[in-house]
Specification:
Order of helices and strands: EHEHHEHEHEHEEEEHEHEHEEHHH
CATH superfamily of the largest domain: Glycogen Phosphorylase B
CATH topology of the largest domain: Rossmann fold
CATH architecture of the largest domain: 3-Layer(aba) Sandwich
Radius of gyration: 21 Å
Structural class: alpha/beta
Largest sheet: 6 strands, parallel
Number of strands: 13
Strand order of the largest sheet: 2-1-3-4-5-6
Distance between the termini: 38 Å
Helix content: 25-40%
CATH class of the largest domain: Alpha Beta
Number of domains: 2
Number of helices: 12
Strand content: 15-25%
Length: 375
C-alpha cells in the first residue's frame, strides 16, 4: 500500500454548523487508576477543538452511582438516565465507546424519539484473530443494527471481516492529544533508554508471530544489552502506573517498546503507540503491524527479529543524535496524521457521509457494506 507520498496538509472536517454530541464511554474516573490518556477523553477533546458541543456520559460510573457502588445493580437505571439525557439535550450524534452498560434496546428507544440523530460506536480492542476476540466481536455486533458506523483500531482484512457483521465500518487511529501528550523527549538526553509497560496482570503479547510473556522478551534484551537502562512497569513485581506518574515515566525515556496483545492485524496497536510517539519517544515497533506504510525507517524504529530489535536499541542508546532525529520525525508525522482534532473531524466526515474528503492516509476508511436484510 503506497501511502508515503501523502505529505500535503489533509483537508478534514467539512461540518460548518456546530454539532451536539453525546459521548458515552469510560472516561477513566477511578481514583486508583486515573487514566488520563484514554481514547474517550481524546475524542471528546477533539470534537470540542472542532467547535462542537460534547456531553460526556460515563455509563459505568452512572451504573455505580445509581446503586450505591454496585455496577451490576445500576445497569437499568443507567440506561434510563441515558435515554432521559438524550431526550433533554437532543443530540445530533450519539457516540458509544466501549459502552457495555448500554443495551441495544436503549439505542433503539433513543433513535425512535430522535429519528434524525445518527449513532456511531468505536472500539480500540482487538478483533483479530476472531478466535481470540469473540467477546469483543459479539459486543460490537450486538449493537450494529442500531448503529450507523462502527470504528475499529484495525484496518485491512480484520476491518473487512467486521464489515460482514457490523455493516459500515471504518478505521480508527489511536489519536494523540497535544494537551495530554505534552513531552518532547527528543529535545534532551534521557535517563531511561527504554520504556516498557504492562497495563494488565496478564502480560502475554504477540512477538514475531508467537505469543510470549513480555517479561521474557525484556529479560532477553537485558541479558543482551547490559549497558542499556530499562524502566519497566507492571513487570518483575513492579506496580503498574497510571495518570501523571505514567506520563512522567514516558517523558524521561529515550525509546519505548510498543508490543501489543496482537500484532497480526493491519495497523492494530495498543493506544500506547500514541502515548510514545506523542511524547517524542522513539518507537520500537514490529514491521508486521503495517505501520511502515505510514512511517519511514527514519520516523520509527522497526524490527523483524530479536536481533534487529536488540540492534535498534543498542545503536540508538549509544547514538543520541540519531535517536533524537528519529523521535522528532516520528513525533511530527504522528501528529500530522493522528492529532485528536483531525481524527475526531474525520469520524464526523464518515458518519455524516462526507466521503469525498476522507484522507487517504487512513486506509480502508469505508470498508463496510449495508447490513443484510432480515428474512
Amino acid at each position: 500500500m503506497a501511502l508515503r507520498a501523502l505529505r500535503s496538509p489533509l483537508r478534514i472536517g467539512t461540518a460548518v454548523q456546530p454539532l451536539r454530541i453525546v459521548h458515552v464511554a469510560n472516561f477513566g474516573l477511578t481514583p486508583t487508576k486515573l487514566y488520563i490518556h484514554n481514547v474517550a477523553t481524546k475524542l471528546s477533546n477533539g470534537w470540542v477543538r472542532g467547535g462542537h458541543h460534547v456531553i460526556n456520559f460515563h455509563d459505568r460510573e452512572a451504573a455505580k452511582w445509581s446503586s450505591m457502588g454496585i455496577k451490576a445493580l445500576g445497569r437499568r437505571r443507567a440506561n434510563k438516565l441515558l435515554i432521559e439525557l438524550c431526550e433533554q439535550t437532543r443530540p445530533d450524534l450519539l457516540v458509544l465507546g466501549h459502552a457495555d452498560i448500554v443495551t441495544p434496546e436503549t439505542i433503539a428507544a433513543i433513535r425512535q424519539k430522535l429519528p434524525a440523530m445518527r449513532v456511531a460506536q468505536w472500539s480500540v480492542d482487538w478483533v483479530y484473530p476472531a478466535t481470540h476476540a469473540q467477546r469483543n466481536i459479539r459486543t460490537l455486533a450486538a449493537k450494529a443494527e442500531h448503529v450507523d458506523w462502527t470504528f475499529l483500531s484495525s484496518a485491512g482484512e480484520a476491518l473487512e471481516q467486521m464489515g460482514k457483521l457490523c455493516g459500515k465500518v471504518a478505521f480508527l487511529p489511536n489519536p494523540v492529544d497535544p494537551s495530554i501528550e505534552t513531552a518532547r523527549a527528543f529535545e534532551a538526553d534521557q535517563p531511561t533508554d527504554v520504556f516498557v509497560s504492562a497495563g494488565r496482570k496478564a502480560e502475554v503479547r504477540q512477538h514475531l508471530g508467537e505469543e510470549v510473556l513480555l517479561s521474557d522478551v525484556v529479560t532477553g534484551l537485558k541479558r543482551r544489552l547490559p549497558d542499556v537502562t530499562f524502566e519497566t512497569h507492571g513487570l518483575f513485581g513492579n506496580p503498574t502506573i497510571w495518570g501523571p506518574a505514567y506520563q512522567a515515566s514516558i517523558s524521561r525515556s529515550a525509546m519505548g517498546l510498543n508490543m501489543s496483545r496482537h500484532s497480526g492485524a493491519y495497523l492494530y496497536s495498543s493506544d500506547r503507540l500514541a502515548h510514545l510517539a506523542g511524547n517524542g519517544v522513539a518507537v520500537l515497533i514490529e514491521r508486521v503491524t503495517g505501520y511502515g506504510d505510514l512511517f519511514g525507517e527514519d520516523e520509527m524504529l522497526f524490527y523483524s527479529s530479536d536481533d534487529e530489535l536488540a540492534e535498534q536499541i543498542a545503536r540508538h542508546a549509544r547514538d543520541g543524535f540519531a535517536r533524537k532525529a528519529v523521535a522528532r520525525k516520528g513525533w511530527a508525522r504522528y501528529r500530522e496524521l493522528f492529532d485528536n482534532a483531525r481524527v475526531a473531524a474525520y469520524m464526523l466526515d464518515v458518519v455524516f457521509d462526507h466521503h469525498d474528503v476522507l484522507p487517504r492516509a487512513y486506509p480502508a476508511v469505508a470498508a463496510g457494506r449495508p447490513l443484510p436484510q432480515a428474512a
